[in-house]
Design a protein that fits this description.
Structural class: alpha/beta
CATH topology of the largest domain: Trypsin Inhibitor V, Chain A
CATH class of the largest domain: Alpha Beta
Distance between the termini: 153 Å
Mean pLDDT: 80
Helix content: 10-25%
CATH architecture of the largest domain: 2-Layer Sandwich
Number of helices: 3
Number of strands: 10
Order of helices and strands: HEHEEEEEHEEEE
Length: 207
């Protein structure tokens, strides 16, 4: 016996309702509604790591699901040695999670090479050292070959690489220790600054 028209109508309405509900459920699932757990974002932002140690930076990167990339070193006058100067990609840039971040780590200030200051005036030598970020310690001694007021030597020696802030000892000439005396008439060879035991002149002289 065939179903009546009214029964077929009711069945059609029920079928349509079931299809509509299934479609709505699918839409809710796809849109993230209906109580489903939100998905973790696929991207993140490079955090600010400047001034941190490598260990601190690695821990922070791990928390953001980022990897530690290549470590590179660079001299810096402002960032202490061992701390991070910058990152690549730079901080604030949006990247995929899992991205490896390269770190540029400070080697501290770049060393300077001590120039040869022998024969320069005291004032000029001190000015050169200050311009290089070095400190000057002065000492004076008699010298028979270097005129008074000029640099005789330096410690360390010229050509030595030094960190900025290092001290350099400059020996500045007091000139000859020998003063001509009437007895030997300046023919002696001076070794130290004291009264000549032979002729009474200033300096030790040997005729």
């Amino acid at each position: 016996m065939w179903p009546s028209a009214s029964m077929r109508g009711v069945a059609g309405v029920i079928t349509f309702s079931l299809v509509a509900m299934a479609s709505l459920s699918m839409i809710l699932v796809l849109s993230g509604c209906g109580g489903s757990t939100p998905k973790t974002p696929l991207t993140t932002v490079i955090p600010a790591l400047g001034g941190m140690s490598v260990e601190e930076a690695e821990a922070l990167l791990s928390g953001e699901e980022l990897g530690l990339g290549t470590l590179m070193e660079e001299y810096s006058d402002t960032v202490p040695a061992g701390l991070i100067i910058r990152t690549m990609p730079p901080e604030g840039e949006e990247v995929d999670r899992g991205t490896a971040v390269d770190l540029v780590v400070s080697r501290g200030p770049e060393p300077v090479t001590l120039p040869d200051l022998r024969g320069k005036s005291e004032g000029e030598a001190v000015s050169i050292l200050q311009g290089l970020g070095l400190q000057a310690n002065l000492q004076r001694s008699y010298n028979e070959s270097v005129s008074a007021g000029l640099v005789c030597s330096s410690e360390p020696a010229p050509g030595t690489p030094l960190a900025r802030g290092s001290a350099v000892t400059l020996t500045v000439s007091l000139g000859s220790a020998y003063v001509t005396c009437p007895t030997c008439r300046g023919k002696g060879t001076v070794t130290v600054a004291e009264t000549c035991p032979e002729c009474g002149g200033s300096g030790v002289c040997y005729g």
